[in-house]
Amino acid sequence: MISPEQCDIDRMSHVPGPGDLELSDVLPLSGGVSGSEVARARLSGQDVVVKRTSHSELVALRLFADLDEPMLPVLLASGIDDRGPWIVIPFHSGEPVGIMGEAPDIVHRCIGRLHASFVGRTSGLAGDLEPIDEEFVRRALTEFGPDQLRRARGVLREQLFTRASHLLDRLATDADFGSCVAGFTPTVLHGDLYGLNVLRSTGPGSVPLIIDWNAARIGPAMFDTAMTSAYDSSARRAHDQGWAEIAGASPDESENRVAHAWSSALINAMYAGTVAVRSSARDAEQMIMIAEESLRTFRLLRRRGRAARLT
């Protein structure tokens, strides 16, 4: 989201296109990190958020229309005009968990239900949501990750910068790391499930809200879990509980262990520079340590898997 000084009130009042909606009391909405145009307004007596958004978020929220999940945004109105996609969702007054905060277990349980709901249904979404595939991994490790590190160079010690750069190189040149993603079961992901995209619940009976689906993608379920949580965590167990509520059984543990280690290595390596700038060098260093340990776990699990297939 953008700050008031970055937001043109006149433009925001016409986010959905002239005459499409009767909005009143339009104010720019500050906080968060999205570059989208976001405003708070009144629509038919209800407080709403009006947002210029990505095609991915528009697709994701339309997919959720048939799901009875109070932690997912409800799409009140949406469309595409000459300035691109726009959405209107109810306003939620909660505060974000925080950049290094971990989402409550009930959020992971909700995400588990979401993941299970779309297993086997992703082939029809080709072209609508970006897949996490070998090309995604290549760009993450050779373009996005290094670019974020360069931006953070003034924040990081040279030793840590070099360590993080070498890690990205190791991952990018590991053929097994890039190719194994094709073996993971795909589903619909939030794609950026961390503390700034989870609003705390406020008031009795209220629940958190999972916001900013701009990075919604298709990929392994553990990508969302590994964003903030270890495999041996209550969050991951809550995810599996939610999954079982829809699928009738827990997800495949052997696949998920590998997918979690793989996702954790990728996520922490590619976002270390981002977190250094937005949070601190100390937090970035913690992410590099997690990525290195996750890579070791991934390689160990892959060796064990190959050995088991040979016996």
From TrEMBL:
Residues 26-239 form the Aminoglycoside phosphotransferase domain. It holds the Pfam family APH. Gene3D superfamilies: 3.90.1200.10. InterPro entries: Aminoglycoside_PTrfase, Kinase-like_dom_sf. This is Aminoglycoside phosphotransferase domain-containing protein. It comes from Microlunatus endophyticus. The lineage of its organism: Bacteria, Bacillati, Actinomycetota, Actinomycetes, Propionibacteriales.
